[in-house]
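Let us work through a complete example step by step.
Step 1: write down the sequence.
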Amino acid sequence: MKSNNELLKLHKYICLELKHQRTLMKLKQDKVAFDLGISASYLSDIENGKRGKTSLVTYLAIANYYDVDFKLILYRAEEKMNLDQESWK
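Step 2: predict the structure and record it as tokens.
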């Protein structure tokens, strides 16, 4: 079971992974936000991990927009987090 601190770290990595996916697809924040019915500043806050209380539905909607299974986003985020933790040892 992960501690709250680990979950907060994982949340940050999930947000960064969503941002990474958007940039890989060469999509602009404004376009994605408009299509999802949210503001660009809200999407920016999500991508930068500044929205700790964002609903799972919002994360799923963003992943769906990118045509990526959220499980893959979560897997990649966990892998990157684990790699970073290993590099600090």
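Step 3: interpret the result. The radius of gyration is 13 Å.
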